[in-house]
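haha ok so turns out i had the wrong file open the whole time. this is the CORRECT one, sorry everyone. sequence first:
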Amino acid sequence: MLAICLEEIILRGFLQDSLSELLPAPIAVITMSLLSTVFGGPIAGAPVLAFLAAIYLGWVRILGGSVVPCIAAHGVFSAIPLAFAGAGP
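then structure:
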C-alpha cells in the first residue's frame, strides 16, 4: 500500500499537477497516463488496460481535487487480481 501511496502522490499529486499548469487538463492526463504506463510497467502484460486505468486515475485526481481518491481507486485496482487469484473451480 505504501508503493501505491507514493506512486499516486508523485505521479498525480506532483507531476500531473505540474503538467496541468503548462497544458490543458486532458493533455496533461493523457501525457501522465502514457508516462505511467511506459515507466510503471503494464498490468499483467496488458498495457492498454494500464493506460486506461491511468487515464481514469488522472481524471479522478482532477475531479476529486486530491490524491486520496486516486490512492483508494488504485488500491481497488490492485486488489481485484488478488481477489480472483484464489478463486478456482
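The chain is about 80% helix and 0% strand.
again sry for the mixup
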